[in-house]
Write a structure and sequence with these properties.
Elements lengths: L23 H5 L30 H4 L4 H5 L4 H7 L11 H41 L24 E2 L1 E6 L3 H13 L6 E5 L16 H15 L3 H7 L8 E2 L2 E2 L6 E2 L2 H10 L1 H4 L2 E6 L4 H10 L4 E6 L11 E5 L8 H5 L3 H7 L9 E4 L8 H10 L1 H4 L6 E6 L10 H14 L5 E6 L5 H11 L5 E3 L8 H7 L2 E5 L3 H8 L5 E4 L7 H11 L3 E3 L17 H15 L3 E2 L2
Parallel strand pairs: 1-17, 2-3, 2-7, 3-6, 7-8, 8-9, 9-10, 11-12, 11-14, 12-13, 14-15, 15-16
Antiparallel strand pairs: 4-5
Organism: Colocasia esculenta
Protein name: Mitochondrial fission protein ELM1
Pfam families: Mito_fiss_Elm1
């Protein structure tokens, strides 16, 4: 078709089969014939000016060509005319309608039943899978996993992170408590409290009284007599405590006064933040303080009493005592005690579940301490000739009495073994009498093989334990013998025949186990023997951990 403003040349018109048929709407408009020629009466309006006047009577003047005619798509009316007639809906009887409705309803019920059945099957499958999974027990994580925070292993209130050591000013007793705390891994988080009582003069006779009663009696005497000569006589020569730890002075400024009420209140108030408090006490004067702390704060503290308290053992959570402390219960021990004193100075009951028996005394000597001491004393002790013999001299006690006679016996035996020794080092205790030390100094002070510690230089005790090849120790000191026996090196004891009562039982038990031998002067120091080293401190620490675990508590790792 030719639109306004366009024309087609006659030779370019399509004819015959090439001619494009016009849409029916254009054919019905009589503007063009089927062969593409202009129909009669269909002249263009622009052909003559007169055509505008007759536009009202022309068919094209009132006919509107729809957009469907231009696009070639039939109109809806034309489509409706070309469409096949729809079949008429048959009219059904009421009975047929009811039957059809019943069929539809039956089919709907069947589909609903199938849907419900499918849901039930799925639910049964889910329940079966869940029940099968519940029978599978997954492995639980181990309770003591290294690196696991303590709060996940029983709660913040069940971990023991701190300790309180209660001492009486005696180095031997306090050394046992600190050694146990060290073995438990709390060496860097403990405080030392000390029970003080008047010293000197008549106070030495009153030291068997309870601390509180002794203090009240002493202050009453001072109030009555003041600074008179009688009071000076009662006081006598004052002896101050000498606190030592690992051979070094602790310092009085770091030692607190032991007050049972104050310690118990501190344990209760800090329980939620710091956890339970471990209380370790040793010595006669600490018994009443330790038992009072447990009585006032039983849910917040764990009290360990070292050495037999000579009272009811159920007043403490754990009692660690040497086996020879129970010697008074034996028939031979009963004969050595006057009848009127047996009730007061002997154990009242045999060992129970809360009693730990050891062969010797507890101490601070372990493998870590020996390695550190070996490094510290390397330059001084390593170049010495071998074998190195170390001699430790203590002082007489009520159960092991001696004097100058023992010093002469030791000097004679030492002269006999000097030929088999490469070097000899001698140390005195603070309890060593002057007459004993003078004899040793006079006979060996100038000997080239012998070195005598003067008490002024740093204490070489730990270095001697690390570097010595053999030991000679006086029988009065159970602590020094226990420390030497923990090294596994030969230990000779001199003066054991002078001991009595439970001290005699201690030496007899060690000799029967092959740990110690008597020093007679006939020994060859270069000879050695082997024995299982004493590990009383480590064994006691294991029992403390076990007792804490039974209570639901653990120690900080």
């Amino acid at each position: 078709p030719t639109f306004r403003g366009q024309s087609r040349k006659p030779d370019q018109r399509r004819t015959g089969a090439q001619a494009r048929p016009f849409p029916p709407a254009l054919q019905s408009a009589s503007l063009y014939n089927n062969n593409g020629t202009r129909a009669r009466g269909g002249e263009d309006k622009s052909a003559s000016p007169s055509s505008s006047s007759s536009s009202s009577s022309s068919p094209l003047s009132t006919r509107v060509i729809s957009p469907q005619a231009l696009t070639g798509k039939p109109s809806r009316s034309a489509e409706a005319g070309l469409r096949a007639p729809r079949p008429r809906r048959l009219l059904l009887s009421p009975a047929t309608d009811r039957r059809r409705g019943a069929l539809i309803e039956e089919r709907g019920d069947r589909l609903l039943s199938q849907s419900i059945l499918a849901d039930v099957v799925v639910l049964v499958l889910v329940i079966s899978v869940v029940a099968w999974m519940r029978t599978i027990r997954l492995p639980e994580p181990p309770s003591g996993t290294p690196g696991m925070p303590e709060i996940f292993e029983g709660g913040a209130y069940s971990v023991v992170r701190r300790a309180v050591v209660i001492g009486n000013g005696c180095a031997g007793a306090e050394n046992q408590s600190i050694g146990l705390v060290r073995a438990l891994g709390l060496a860097d988080n403990h405080a030392l409290y000390r029970v003080t009582r008047p010293r000197g003069g008549v106070n030495e006779l009153l030291r068997w009284l309870p601390v509180s009663f002794h203090k009240k009696l002493y202050y009453a005497l001072r109030r009555i007599f003041g600074d008179s000569q009688f009071m000076m006589l009662l006081q006598g020569k004052k002896v101050g405590p000498l606190p030592y730890q690992n051979g070094r002075s602790i310092g009085l400024s770091s030692i607190l006064e032991a007050d049972a009420r104050q310690i118990a209140a501190m344990a209760r108030e800090t329980f939620e933040k710091e956890g339970p408090l471990l209380v370790v006490a040793s010595g006669w004067d600490t018994i009443s303080i330790a038992s009072s702390i447990r009585h006032m704060a039983p849910q917040n503290v764990f009290v360990v009493q070292i050495q037999h308290p000579r009272t009811h053992l159920d007043r403490f959570d754990l009692v660690i005592t040497p086996q020879h402390d129970y010697y008074p219960l034996t028939p031979s021990g009963q004969q050595e005690i006057p009848k009127f004193l047996r009730r007061w100075i002997t154990p009242r009951e045999p060992p129970g579940n809360n009693v730990v028996l050891t062969a010797g005394a507890l101490h601070q000597v372990d493998s870590a301490a020996l390695r550190a001491a070996a490094l510290t004393w390397h330059n001084e002790l390593a170049p010495l000739s071998r074998p190195l013999l170390v001699i430790n001299i203590g002082g007489p006690t009520c159960h092991c009495r001696y004097g100058a006679d023992l010093a002469k016996q030791l000097a004679d035996a030492l002269h006999s073994v000097l030929a088999s020794c490469g070097s000899v080092r001698i140390s005195f205790s603070r309890r060593t009498p002057e007459k004993v030390s003078h004899i040793i100094l006079r006979q060996f002070g100038d000997h080239p093989k012998v070195y005598i510690w003067d008490g002024e230089d740093p204490n070489p005790h730990m270095g001697h334990l690390a570097w010595a090849d053999a030991f000679v120790i006086t029988a009065d000191s159970i602590s020094m013998i226990s420390e030497a026996c923990s090294t596994g090196k030969p230990v000779y004891v001199i003066g054991a025949e002078r001991c009595k009562w439970k001290f005699s039982a201690f030496h007899r038990a060690l000799r029967e186990r092959g740990i110690v031998r008597p020093f007679t002067g006939k020994e060859d120091i270069s000879d050695s023997w082997c024995y299982p080293p004493l590990n009383d401190t480590g064994d006691a620490a294991s029992r403390v951990r076990q007792a804490l675990a039974e209570r639901g508590w653990t120690l900080r790792r």
